[in-house]
Design a protein that fits this description.
The complex is a heterodimer of chains A (about 210) and B (about 375).
Chain A lengths: L2 H42 L4 H16 L2 H12 L3 H25 L3 H9 L4 H31 L12 H10 L2 H29 L6
Chain B lengths: L1 E8 L9 E8 L4 E5 L6 H8 L7 E6 L2 E2 L5 H6 L1 E5 L10 H5 L1 H5 L4 H14 L4 H4 L9 H13 L5 E5 L7 H18 L2 E6 L2 H7 L2 E6 L2 E6 L1 H6 L4 H7 L3 H8 L2 H4 L1 E6 L7 H8 L3 E4 L8 E4 H4 L5 H4 L1 E2 L3 E3 L4 H11 L3 E6 L2 E7 H17 L1
Parallel strand pairs in B: 3-8, 3-9, 6-7, 7-8, 11-12, 15-16
Antiparallel strand pairs in B: 1-2, 1-4, 4-5, 9-10, 11-17, 12-13, 13-14, 16-17
Helix pairs in contact in B: 5-7
Classes of the chains: A mainly alpha (about 210), B alpha/beta (about 375).
Bound molecules: adenosine-5'-diphosphate and magnesium ion.
Chain lengths: ~210, ~375
């Protein structure tokens, strides 16, 4: 273990890649939520509920394919770089959020839904006044799972030229420099913790009042 | 008024109809208690009235209008709905829960707040204590009261109640039933009250609708159902102790002789006034705390001046109390007669003779059966 090399990895090599990594994670999360949340909500609407099972089947299947494979599959289509890495990671991250959005909304007690309908709430009022606030804890849990997973898998982006902390870690592997591997993983781990904490704060803000 | 005209309902995924050819009418200000075994279609009928379910055929009219022509959400905002599981919104305070419908109707904040406070008091809750609380901080009985307050919030003429007191223990249930009957005297809603408990139906209903396998078997006053059950099914539902129930559960007002208020000036022609009114008891308005003075048509026939046969009423019960209570009161107070009150006003009397006559008619019916 070479302390000097460890410090070089940590202080000199990592910072730009930390930024790339965060950017990748941010962009991927943004689009994942943008797709997964409405998709989840749509699949709980009476009209589409019958498709929920099938969509979940595909998303489950997608999740079981190793992330590296997902990233590689998109290489021939999108080529190298940030974009194909992001697209692959988005697809890989969808499942927990879609699943938890569905679980959260369907988890609203039936009697609460019935009473709210019976009082004369329309579908939209039922959704944003009842179903949405009550499913925040479950949806946020999905978002956290997805984010923490994503911070880790995003290291693979460097394999298709997507940048990020993978650059530091894979450099370490290529050169047999454990210091680089260690520095890289520590930073990735720290990022996961920070993002998880950050989302917990957001959750505290969004969580229904009776649970506070 | 609620009218069902030949209403049928068959659920999509079910081979047998849940409701078959039900026609009935709930009059304004009346409580219709729907009773029958589990799965006989009570809930389905209720949910068709506020269009949470659509009938397969038939017509339902509310306030003289075919509900099929109305916007379901608007319809529901004008119909109170209470269910056994209550379904309060867990993330809203009690105040917010009660104000749900007024808010949907976009009342002003000021009006909403005073209405909510008023309602909480009406259902026997302390607004200062519960207003800011969340549902999970209340007891079952308190939550059910909130459920009733929420249903009444926008002062709908109609109330649908699906086993509203089914989930609380018998003591609380009893109290809630009585409080609701008291409340109903003030608010006079048109109520559909679903229960599987025949005792509750008899206690709560002005009329009882007995249902079996989706069909309306009998629709009559509790007294009529108890004394003239139309078939074995109804007899079975009423149970072995039908005769005792009739006594236990007949409201005192059903046996009462109605009274008419006489002015002092009418005393001389009291008999005539009484006969013209078609009633058999006359009474004089008491001064302050004095007890009521009354006379009956029977007494007067003996030819004495009315002033001398006036009797003092000393014990009173509420009209919706069972005859049994009247009997108990008579025994406790060593009296042959109790006065009947409705909304704290004297409306009639019930005598030991009335009860005895009533028992003998039950006996006759039992022998017939
Ligand atoms: N949504 C539904 N889908 C299919 N069948 C139903 C549905 N709701 C009720 N039923 C059936 O309709 C019948 C009447 O049910 P319900 O009105 O709930 O009875 P009750 O309230 O008297 O217990 C039952 O046989 C029940 O299984
Ligand atoms: Mg039911």
């Amino acid at each position: 273990m070479n302390v000097e090399r460890f410090l070089v990895a940590l202080i000199d090599r990592s910072p730009p890649h930390v930024l790339e990594h965060l950017q990748l994670v941010g962009v991927v999360l943004f689009f994942t939520v943008l797709i997964a949340f409405p998709l989840g909500v749509m699949l709980t609407r009476p009209r589409f509920r019958k498709y929920a099972g099938r969509v979940m089947f595909f998303l489950n299947a997608g999740q079981t394919i190793p992330p590296l494979a997902v990233i590689s599959i998109f290489m021939p289509v999108f080529g190298l770089g940030f974009r194909p890495a992001a697209v692959a990671l988005i697809i890989y991250s969808l499942l927990p959020i879609v699943r938890n959005t569905i679980a959260g909304i369907l988890g609203v007690p039936e009697e609460v839904r019935q009473a709210a309908r019976g009082m004369g709430m329309n579908q939209w009022e039922l959704f944003y006044q009842v179903e949405l606030p009550l499913s925040v804890p479950v949806i946020m849990a999905g978002l956290k799972t997805s984010s923490v997973l994503l911070v880790g898998t995003a290291t693979l982006a460097s394999l298709v030229g997507g940048g990020g902390m993978g650059r530091v870690i894979f450099a370490g592997i290529d050169m047999f420099w454990p210091e680089f591997i260690l520095a890289g993983t520590l930073i990735v781990g720290a990022m996961a913790v920070v993002i998880d904490r950050g989302l917990t704060l957001l959750e505290l803000f969004l969580i229904p009042r009776h649970l506070k | 008024m609620i009218q069902l005209i030949d209403v049928n309902k068959t659920f999509l995924n079910s081979p047998v109809p849940a409701v078959r050819g039900v026609s009935m009418e709930v009059k304004d200000g009346e409580i219709c208690a729907m009773v029958g075994p589990s799965g006989c279609g009570k809930t389905t009928i209720l949910r068709m009235i506020n269009r949470l379910e659509e009938p397969s055929s038939g017509t339902i009219m509310v306030g003289g209008r075919d509900i099929q022509q109305e916007d379901p959400d608007r319809l529901r905002r004008g119909i109170g709905y209470v269910i056994q599981q209550i379904g309060l919104l867990p993330h809203r305070t009690i105040g917010e829960n009660v104000s749900l419908v007024p808010r949907l109707l976009r009342w002003s904040e000021q009006k909403i707040k005073s209405r909510v406070i008023n309602l909480l008091e009406m259902v026997g809750l302390d607004p200062g204590q519960v207003y800011e609380k969340f549902p999970h901080q209340l007891s079952g009985g308190q939550m059910q009261r909130v459920g009733v307050a929420r249903a009444l919030a926008a002062d709908p003429p109609i109330l649908l109640m699906d086993e509203p007191f089914g989930a609380v223990d018998p003591i609380v249930r009893n109290r809630l039933q009585e409080e609701f009957l008291n409340l109903q005297q003030q608010v006079k809603k048109t109520v559909c009250f679903v229960t599987h408990d025949i005792n509750e139906a008899i206690k709560m209903g002005d009329r009882i609708a007995v249902l079996n396998e989706g069909r309306l078997v009998q629709y009559n006053s509790p007294l009529e159902v108890l004394s003239h059950p139309v078939n074995d099914f109804v007899v079975n539902i009423l149970g072995e102790d039908r005769g005792v129930k009739l006594l236990n559960l007949t409201r005192a007002e059903a046996l009462m002789s109605e009274a008419v208020l006489l002015q002092e000036s009418q005393m001389d022609r009291a008999v005539q006034v009484l006969q013209e009114s078609g009633k058999t008891v006359g009474f004089i308005k008491p001064n302050g705390n004095e007890s009521i003075k009354y006379f009956t048509l029977e007494n007067i026939k003996k030819g004495m001046p009315v002033k001398e046969i006036l009797e003092k009423g000393t014990c009173f019960i509420d009209g919706f109390q069972p005859v049994k209570t009247a009997l108990e009161t008579m025994m406790k107070r060593n009296s042959d007669v109790v006065g009947i009150l409705k909304e704290d006003r004297f409306v009639g009397i019930i005598t030991w003779q009335d009860i005895k006559k009533h028992i003998s008619t039950i006996r006759e019916h039992e022998n017939e059966c």
